[in-house]
């Protein structure tokens, strides 16, 4: 099985950095608050509808939105929160602290998944080695 792997946070392209990022920050800061959130679908639809007007040539996908929102957080550009209701910017310290806890829990969950898969890989390797050294107790190796 060949799984396609992409970097977790690829560098922003020039268009993303110069056009999309400032526009996304502007929209999030002006149009969202603790009560009013913007969903991923709504943001993607708006950017795709307005892309010619704002000078962006490519499709605005959910992956691109996630890349930009991660960049906003990692660079400390805005206290961006995401919930099942959508994205919003807040200055509520409690909400920001809860988002940090949520991220830490996700990281711990991912680390547990990694450890589980590593254990399974070790077991598979051990089984493979065991299969190589264990012979058929009856001496039957060819059923032809």
What does this structure look like?
The chain has 144 residues and is mainly α. It has two domains: 12-90, Winged helix-like DNA-binding domain superfamily/Winged helix DNA-binding domain (Arc Repressor Mutant, subunit A, Orthogonal Bundle); 92-135. 60% of the residues lie in helices and 6% in strands. It contains four helices and two strands; from the N terminus they run H-H-H-E-E-H. It has helices at residues 14-31, 40-54, 62-74, 93-133, and strands at residues 80-83, 86-89. Strands 1-2 form a two-stranded antiparallel ribbon. It is elongated and about 75 Å long. It starts with 13 loop residues before the first helix and ends in an 11-residue tail after the last helix.
Q: Which structural category fits the helices and strands? A: mainly alpha
**Strand residue percentage:** 5-15%
Radius of gyration: 24 Å
Terminal residue distance:
31 Å
Order of helices and strands: HHHEEH
Largest sheet: 2 strands, antiparallel
Strand order of the largest sheet: 1-2
Would you identify the CATH architecture of the largest domain? Orthogonal Bundle
Corresponding CATH superfamily of the largest domain: Winged helix-like DNA-binding domain superfamily/Winged helix DNA-binding domain
Mean pLDDT, as a whole number? 88
DSSP strand count: 2
The percent range for helix content is 55-70%
Global shape: elongated
Number of domains: 2
Provide the CATH top-level class of the largest domain.
Answer: Mainly Alpha
* CATH fold assignment of the largest domain: Arc Repressor Mutant, subunit A
Spans with pLDDT under 50 lasting ≥5 residues? none
Give the count of helical stretches.
Answer: 4
């Amino acid at each position: 099985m060949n799984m396609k792997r992409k970097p977790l946070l690829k560098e922003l392209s020039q268009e993303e950095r110069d056009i999309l990022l400032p526009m996304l920050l502007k929209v999030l800061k002006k149009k969202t608050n603790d009560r009013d959130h913007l969903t991923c679908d709504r943001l993607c639809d708006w950017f795709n509808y307005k892309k010619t007007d704002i000078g962006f040539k490519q499709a605005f996908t959910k992956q691109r939105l996630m890349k930009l929102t991660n960049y906003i957080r990692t660079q400390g550009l805005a206290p961006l929160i995401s919930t099942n209701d959508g994205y919003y910017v807040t200055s509520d310290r409690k909400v920001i602290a809860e988002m940090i806890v949520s991220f830490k829990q996700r990281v711990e969950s991912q680390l547990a998944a990694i450890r589980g898969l590593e254990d399974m890989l070790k077991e598979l390797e051990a089984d493979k080695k065991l299969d190589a050294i264990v012979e058929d107790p009856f001496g039957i190796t060819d059923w032809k």
